[in-house]
Specification:
The chain has 426 residues and is mainly alpha-helical. The protein folds into 3 domains: 80 residues; 128 residues, no CATH class; 170 residues, no CATH class. The chain is 51% helix and 6% strand. The protein contains 18 helices and 5 strands. The chain has a 5-stranded mixed beta sheet, covered by helices on one side. The chain is elongated, with a radius of gyration of 27 Å.
Length: 426
């Protein structure tokens, strides 16, 4: 055979059509297997599948040159399909290090057995709070009807879990919002999606009934039914970290929450609301490298990380340090100082270093971000040669180690902030 016989059978356009079809087919059949933050792993799986499929079109004795050309073509296509926005935060293994061991928290839990009538009253008073990370209404009418039927028939219903805030007395729903919405919706006559709540797929004596058209004995029995509620409370009012662990460990949803998604639920309040507002700042969006807020709130976490490192003495682990910082400020209503600090810092960074300055490789590097942002916040005036200094910082051998190895260790965090200040502003 001549060398020409080993050239690819497909043109670039034909290959891209085949690849796109395979990607669409694979994703549509397997999308439930992937979390939102696993795009990189997914793309590598797809790449392997495409390569395998392409080899079937040729001969098992595929020339090395053709293989290399195919690899390059496949990677280029996948890079086009999954742009840099999807890899906006660089994956560094040490950034995922959690707490070492689990502290002994001063918390307790106890069962409560309110009637459904009491639950309805508390819901209408907004005593229950459903965190943002919880899924919206996902049950269908039959699922909701069968829960109501269980109460009418006196059958057991799984307990719900709530976290009771010490100051406000609000009960944050950790698990069980579908059941709560069903109870309230049936008594109001409407499902949460706005449609009428008529029982369906249940026993004949109740099928087609609204709450308002039940026999009075059945309606009274429903109102008087009991739902077990497991209430979790903190004993120590100074404890601001146990609530994070409660939400992270007790939430039974199907999606593993990011650290900031858990904070969004457990530390809700004025400070958290401010973080989400700051996350929309146009200059910050240019620095982060993604026009829209990140679905896993990694952008919000970076803002919080900056605030914590700029104003508190760091002690590992990073997750616990950030939790402590946010926990102590969740009810803080004096927000102007924080807003000014963030706005001034991102403006100066963007003017001095341009858009996406912390994307050292493919995504934003959290360690470069925190050290440089803190350095700018601590040093009010940047030198004229700041861009050259920044290039020198990124190529500094010691700094390179500090942004990729043991990045959340106490000595590492402090050392990289000090080097950033010295090189950029010394």
């Amino acid at each position: 055979m001549t060398n020409d016989s080993y050239m690819p059978l497909l043109s670039k356009g034909e290959f891209k059509k085949l690849a796109l079809r395979m990607v669409e087919d694979y994703l549509s059949n397997n999308i439930a297997l992937f979390e939102r933050d696993e795009i990189l792993r997914r793309s590598r799986v797809l790449e392997a599948l495409l390569i395998d499929e392409y080899r079937k079109l040729r001969t098992p004795r595929l020339e090395q040159k053709v293989c290399e050309e195919f690899f390059a073509q496949a990677r280029k296509f996948l890079d086009d399909l999954f742009p840099d926005d999807d890899f906006v935060v660089e994956a560094v293994a040490s950034e995922n290090e959690g707490d070492i061991g689990l502290p002994i928290y001063k918390i307790h839990s106890y069962p409560s057995d309110p009637t459904l009538e009491v639950i309805k009253t508390k819901w209408d008073r907004n005593d229950y709070v459903v965190p943002e990370f919880q899924r919206g209404w996902v049950w269908n009418a039959t699922q909701a009807s069968r829960l109501v039927e269980s109460f009418l028939a006196g059958l057991p219903v799984p307990a719900i879990f709530v976290y009771k805030e010490t100051r406000s007395g609000k009960e944050i729903v950790i698990d069980g919002q579908q059941r709560l919405r069903t109870i309230v919706g049936f008594m109001d006559g409407k499902l949460p999606d706005g449609s009428q709540f008529r029982l369906q797929g249940v026993s004949k004596e109740w099928d087609g009934k609204f709450y308002s058209t039940l026999k009075e004995s059945d309606a009274a029995g429903f109102r008087g039914s009991v739902l077990r509620v497991i209430v979790v409370e903190q004993i120590d009012p100074k404890d601001v970290s146990s609530i994070y662990e409660i939400f992270a460990r007790l939430n039974t949803g199907g999606t593993s929450l990011s650290a900031q998604e858990v904070r969004n639920a457990s530390y809700h309040g004025p400070f958290n609301d401010m973080l989400k507002r700051l996350n929309l700042d146009p200059t910050w969006r240019k620095i982060f490298g993604k026009s829209q807020p990140d679905a896993r709130m990694r952008d919000v976490e970076l803002i919080l990380r900056f605030f914590a490192l700029a104003t508190m003495k760091y002690e590992k682990p990073m997750k616990g340090f950030i939790n402590q910082f946010m926990g102590h400020r969740k009810t803080n209503t004096s927000l102007h100082e924080w807003e000014e600090l963030f706005s001034a810092t991102v403006t100066r960074v963007n003017q001095a270093l341009g858009d996406r300055p912390f994307h050292v490789k493919r995504g934003i590097n959290s360690s470069v971000f925190d050290s440089v942002m803190v350095a700018f916040a601590k040093c009010p005036v940047e030198p004229k040669d700041i861009e050259n200094r920044y290039h020198r910082l990124l190529t500094d051998t010691e700094y390179q180690k500090l942004i990729y190895v043991s990045t959340t260790d106490t000595n590492t965090v402090n050392a990289r902030i000090n080097i950033a200040r010295e090189v950029l502003f010394g």
